[in-house]
Amino acid sequence: MHANFLDPYQEGASPVHRLDARIKLALVIAFIFTSALTPAGAWPIFILLFSLILSAELLSDLGIGFYMKRALLALPFVLAALPLLVTVDGVALLPLPLGLSITQQGLERFLSISLRSWISVQAAILLASTTTFPDILRAMRAMGLPRLMVAIIGLMWRYLFVMVDEVLRMLRARTARSGESESPERRTGGTIFWRSQVAGGMAGSLFLRSLERSDRIYHAMLARGYDGEIRSLPQPGLRPVDWLVLFIVLLFLLSLLVLSRILWG
């Protein structure tokens, strides 16, 4: 397979890379829950949460820009929260046409949701960039996630690479048969209607190939003794430093959550 560009993992030997995957997964889940449960308008708490994730990003040696660019994945959540600006009752700040107005409470809730989404996406990116996917699967299994769900997630991820590789081969074959010109002034390959027909045929062919490939893969797995459990070597025990990081960060997150509930609850 050649679709390695899909893998978000970045090689490294930073302290974040060396931290046990089970600890990283538990801390990311706790971080996202803390962010989600923080009341709207608790700006000091959001700043401290962002400082925490920023410190982890600096320790990962991948660069702040690496995470900031990928954090644009939070943009759909921000756009989905835009209606809150005019639908939440409160003190009007900016009148708009059609009798609408941006309210103070709506702006506060919109900014809070945007911050939650942004820092939560950064936490997920940090986990995926510093932990291999097999390690994440083993961490899920160690945390008690049902083995069937872990198997489905693992197979779905691996099969995605197979599918993308199949698409790339089909695109190369189409290019080789269409005689495309390197000159931008000369258009080859037929009209837009013809291209749409070819794309539709490729989509149908990909669907049939995926069914055949999945059937062959499943029978190959059964022939090798697959019974629903993806087996691996026993995981090593947690180091003292892993336990220490888990305790300190969880205590910090719990303190932030309690403080936010007391002051802004």
TrEMBL record:
Localization per Swiss-Prot or TrEMBL: Cell membrane
Sorted UniProt keywords: Cell membrane, Membrane, Transmembrane, Transmembrane helix
One Pfam family linked to the record: CbiQ
Endpoints of the signal sequence: none
Matching InterPro entries: ABC/ECF_trnsptr_transmembrane (IPR003339), ECF_CbiQ (IPR012809), ECF_transporter_component (IPR051611)
Transmembrane segments: 25-53, 73-98, 148-171, 243-264
Name the UniProt record assigns to this protein: Cobalt ECF transporter T component CbiQ
Upper lineage: Bacteria, Bacillati, Chloroflexota, Anaerolineae, Anaerolineales
